[in-house]
């Protein structure tokens, strides 16, 4: 009988735990940010499309910094990449203080961009680092386990957004704010901005403290000895592999559907609850509670799917959940009452497996090229920057073919699930041929 391969070797358990805490840290940043599209739209009296620039700045940082992060990690180490990532994360969060003092929207976008340049370093470092901490045959399960702690951070981020931002902002609706005089508007805006920045300042200080802890904690060095920076040759090698090339595309569309589901659940639910007689703020807070339930389901489903990967191939499970996501999204589009919101919450159960599984399938067998491969997959997070503004533009139409535009806008999510389903199917076929 062959010896059982451990998921994480004993000597690497503590480094594994420490790096896994970073998945929690960027989960918090991601999901305290999603509700800010609606918050900034109200604070600055903007359209949903303008508010969605938050996501463009946030996920644009991932795109811009992914390959510079990979080059930095290749030259130095995973630990160096993590330390620089934490420093940029903390600095971006603390930049909310001067941004609020200006009273303008765009300095906040700059702060978000710097913050997510840090997150790009963290994700480019941590994901392949986790994959390397053990046998390659258990790499996808190991990454799913580490990623299971990401939605716990996301839950806390959603809770912080609801309790410390949404509930404390001025309860005036967007329409009521539009009727204020300039002096009244500036006073309300200033008060709301002070509420909004408080959690980010606390997070910035906490992240810088974590950076110091990581600095003085011994971590395993990169296994490879080659620190050359032949980016062009590496990219030519990895993009010649269909599994990797298609994985980058699938990851782009997956991140797009994830961010759309968790960002626009606020708009989707608020419309339903306002039609039931609630105020706009009450509808927003209740919608965020549904968002938290969705994240809790996502978290539980991640652990369940990690277990199921012991018995099913990653591609087959990915394909099955993508089909489930597409079916539920059809309900989100078709139903115009609470049933549609239930479907939107249920979508999170189907998404839970996708990011780390696409990641693990795409990087399988890349060896040291995984550093650059990881950068390509992190750049694919650009989907979270591109897709939400497209959906916001549809939502701003208010009504399309007699249907609420917010319902119709989820056709983009449906398309995204179809792309992921195709990748899962193709990966499953490759798995069967082995």
Structural account:
- This protein has helices at residues 13-33, 36-43, 48-51, 53-75, 78-94, 96-102, 106-132, 139-147, 150-166, 174-178, 182-215, 231-238, 242-263, 265-275, 280-308, 314-334, 338-351, 354-363, 370-379, 383-395, 405-408, 411-433, and strands at residues 399-400, 403-404.
- With 434 residues, the protein is mostly helical.
- The protein has one domain: Growth Hormone, Chain: A (Up-down Bundle), CATH 1.20.1250.20.
- A two-stranded antiparallel ribbon has the order 1-2.
- Helix 1 runs antiparallel to helix 7 (106-132) and helix 7 (106-132) runs antiparallel to helix 8.
- The longest helix is centred in the middle third of the chain and has 34 residues, at 182-215.
- The relative contact order is 0.15.
Compact description:
The protein is mainly α. It has helices spanning 13-33, 36-43, 48-51, 53-75, 78-94, 96-102, 106-132, 139-147, 150-166, 174-178, 182-215, 231-238, 242-263, 265-275, 280-308, 314-334, 338-351, 354-363, 370-379, 383-395, 405-408, 411-433, and strands at residues 399-400, 403-404.
Feature tags:
434 residues; mainly alpha; Growth Hormone, Chain: A; two-stranded antiparallel ribbon; 22 helices; 2 strands; 1% strand
């Amino acid at each position: 009988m062959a010896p059982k391969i451990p998921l994480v070797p004993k000597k690497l358990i503590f480094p594994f735990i420490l790096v896994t805490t970073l998945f929690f840290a960027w989960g918090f940043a991601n999901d305290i940010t999603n509700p800010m599209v609606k918050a900034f739209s109200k604070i600055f009296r903007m359209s949903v499309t303008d508010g969605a620039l938050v996501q463009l700045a946030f996920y644009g940082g991932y795109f811009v910094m992914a390959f510079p992060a990979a080059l930095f990690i290749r030259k130095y180490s995973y630990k160096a990449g993590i330390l620089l990532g934490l420093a940029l994360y903390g600095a971006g969060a603390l930049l909310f203080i001067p941004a609020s003092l200006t009273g303008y929207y765009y300095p906040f976008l700059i702060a978000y961009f710097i913050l997510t340049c840090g997150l790009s370093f963290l994700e480019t470092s941590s994901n392949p680092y986790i994959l390397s901490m053990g046998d390659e045959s258990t790499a996808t399960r190991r990454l799913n386990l580490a990623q299971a702690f990401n939605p716990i951070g996301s839950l806390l981020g959603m809770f912080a957004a609801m309790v410390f931002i949404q509930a404390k902002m001025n309860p005036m609706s967007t329409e009521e704010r539009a009727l204020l005089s300039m002096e009244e508007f500036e006073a309300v805006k200033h008060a709301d901005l002070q509420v909004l920045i408080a959690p980010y300042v606390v997070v910035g200080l906490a992240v810088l403290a974590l950076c110091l802890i990581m600095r003085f904690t011994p971590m395993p060095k990169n296994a490879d000895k080659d620190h050359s920076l032949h980016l062009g040759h590496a990219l030519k090698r990895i993009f010649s592999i269909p599994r990797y090339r298609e994985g980058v595309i699938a990851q782009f569309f997956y991140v797009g559907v994830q961010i759309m589901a968790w960002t626009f659940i606020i708009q989707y639910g608020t419309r339903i609850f306002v039609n039931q007689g609630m105020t706009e703020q009450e509808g927003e807070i209740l919608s965020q509670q549904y968002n938290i339930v969705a994240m809790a389901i996502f978290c539980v489903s991640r652990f369940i799917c990690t277990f199921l990967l012991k018995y099913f191939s990653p591609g087959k499970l990915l394909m099955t959940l993508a089909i489930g996501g597409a079916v539920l999204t059809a309900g989100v589009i078709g139903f115009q009452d609470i049933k549609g919101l239930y479907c939107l919450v249920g979508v999170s159960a189907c998404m839970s497996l996708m990011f780390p599984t696409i990641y693990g399938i795409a990087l399988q067998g890349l060896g040291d090229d995984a550093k650059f491969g990881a950068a390509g997959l992190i750049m694919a997070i650009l989907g979270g920057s591109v897709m939400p503004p497209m959906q916001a533009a549809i939502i701003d139409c208010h009504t399309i073919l007699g249907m609420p535009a917010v319902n119709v806008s989820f056709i983009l999510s449906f398309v995204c699930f179809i792309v992921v389903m195709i990748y899962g199917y193709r990966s499953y076929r490759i798995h069967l041929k082995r």
